[in-house]
Write a structure and sequence with these properties.
The complex is a heterodimer. By secondary structure, chain A is an all-beta fold. Chain A is 0% helix and 52% strand. Chain A is globular. The model of chain B has no long low-confidence stretch (mean pLDDT 94). The chains are: A mainly beta, B mainly beta. The interface between A and B is medium-sized, with 25 and 22 residues.
Chain lengths: 115, 114
């Protein structure tokens, strides 16, 4: 079964600085999707960014970008120019094509932004 | 579209009582998922539906939990009888079924069983 690992339970960043959140996954599939979700204190799960495994180009969404290393099964999230509103739990997620039709989530990383 | 709508937002109930959580998915989304989130276990998939039919309920903790989707616009998750260990945030999410789109989550129901 596919597993998603976020090895950083907590991270902190100074406002306006850049931070990178790590995510690794285990799979035997070649075609799949990866996602980062943000969960602020309001608890709403918000899709931040997605990456298709067959695309080599790293996805970007404004201040958010990913570093997708398919061979290493690594999918890190970089937040540039961090803002106070970026403070939240961030979940990495995997959605493949085989065996299951549901998304697998990591344990999450709590990001604190210091003013 | 108003997104995925869950109700109630908060629920406090006494042990042994029946609890019903409700979800309205986004119109046109063929897949509906129920997740439970706790500090200890993170996000756990309980059950998911495709075109109103339950596909995988292997995550449902025990017979006290049941879920239905009588039509494309409504689903319920019922716990009977409730126990303190059921206290958690329960999320409903829907998807068009294509991985590209990911999930759209509701705002969750925080359940407290005392």
């Amino acid at each position: 079964a596919q597993t998603v690992t976020q090895s950083q339970p907590e991270m902190s960043v100074q406002e306006a600085e850049t931070v990178t959140l790590s995510c690794t996954y285990d799979t035997s599939e070649s075609d799949y999707y990866l996602f980062w979700y943000k969960q602020p204190p309001s608890r709403q799960m918000i899709l931040v960014i997605r990456q298709e495994a067959y695309k080599q180009q790293n996805a970007t969404e404004n201040r958010f970008s990913v570093n997708f290393q398919k061979a290493a099964k690594s999918f890190s999230l970089k937040i540039s120019d961090s803002q106070l509103g970026d403070a939240a739990m961030y979940f990495c997620a995997y959605w493949g094509n085989e065996d299951n039709n549901d998304m697998r989530f990591g344990a999450g990383t709590r990001l604190t932004v210091k003013p | 579209d108003a997104g995925v709508i869950q109700s109630p937002r908060h629920e406090v109930t006494e042990m042994g009582q029946e609890v019903t959580l409700r979800c309205k998915p986004i119109s046109g989304h063929d897949y509906l998922f129920w997740y439970r989130q706790t500090m200890m276990r993170g996000l756990e998939l309980l059950i998911y539906f495709n075109n109103n039919v339950p596909i995988d309920d292997s995550g449902m903790p025990e017979d006290r939990f049941s879920a239905k989707m009588p039509n494309a616009s409504f689903s319920t998750l019922k716990i009977q009888p409730s126990e303190p260990r059921d206290s958690a945030v329960y999320f409903c999410a829907s998807s068009p079924g294509l991985q590209h789109y990911g999930y759209t989550f509701g705002s969750g129901t925080r359940l407290t069983v005392v």
